Amino acid sequence: PDHPDDVFLAGTRVSHLEHADDMALISSSPEGLQQKLDALATWAARNQMEINVKKTVVMMFHRPRSRPNMPPPVFSIYGRPLNIVSQQSYVGITFSSGTPNIWDIHFSSCASKARRAANMTFFVESHTGPIPPWECRTLYTAHVDPHLIWAAGVTGIGTLAQQAKLEAVQVAYLRRLLKLQSRSQKCILFTETGLWPLLYRRLYIQLGYLQYICQQDSDRLVVAALQSQIALDRQKTSGWLSDLRSNLLKVDVTLPGDITGPLIAKCMTDLKTAMQNALRNEVNNSPKLELLQRRVEFSAKGRAESPVLLFRSYLRIHDWALRQALTRLLVSDHRLSIEILRRAPAPIPREERLCRFCVAAVEDPIHALFECNCSLELVTLRR
């Protein structure tokens, strides 16, 4: 039944939500919620059903930065009191009323599940030996990535702390995939594997969900929710849409003021371009990644291309030792002087990180591979 304290979205009354066998009753007051609980119990009895009281819980959300000193109200069904909880999962998303952010526990849970899946993936190596990079990438997209992007369309990218929890799992996994140490640059984890950084991936999913909403009929509840968000966005009030807009601006992408399907599609293209530009600039501006700058890949048809994100052909080399050595050389994770002395206790200028053989030039990959002639073994290996 209707109640004065019902929740409205863009003029649409929202008293309850139903997803399969899960139901959520919503009200802005204890009296309104108890009325709905009583009505639900009556409806169930008329239809020869009974509500499972043990599985029915109440979650209370207070106004921001307010915590009432009064004891919580008592809610009941069939005269039996219901538990009041501070966290609860609904359709796979964990809501929390006892943390600073409603999604804190959800993000922590997703990060924990993703980390567990990643650890299980690499545990297999103790029985099978090293997993080839492509197969390791496939396992990532199948078992780890789903946890990292779970409900991204609804929760967005989260706070900085929430982002960090998920990104730590992604970065650690990709470093193990490429067999790199923990101080390797992050940009090469994506340019060399063809995977998207989690920030851009979650933003892209959120834009995709927004595009999906724009394609729905006007009588759908999700459209009413979007209209409510548009009104909040125009009032410069924090919300799902305004947070998306501000997060896109941080990566130099502008969300259009007119929210339509075609304009959102263009925004998704802009986001992909912004990601590629950001990664390309990071590689080109790094003195450690000279071998990756201005490189050219050849397609199956023989065309010269310079894709920013691509699973690189050298990662398909079957010899494990050769593949690892080449990878570390290309991404500056090697043991040549230019890299080892970079991390010396006392700072050593670049020009003083000299070759161990000729002691006349900086010991970088180009010098070691093609220039130094002071080691007979090195010269012989070149032949």
UniProtKB/TrEMBL annotation:
Q: Which InterPro entries match?
A: RT_dom
List each copy of the Reverse transcriptase domain by range: 1-95
Write down what this protein is called.
Reverse transcriptase domain-containing protein
- Organism listed in the record: Exidia glandulosa HHB12029
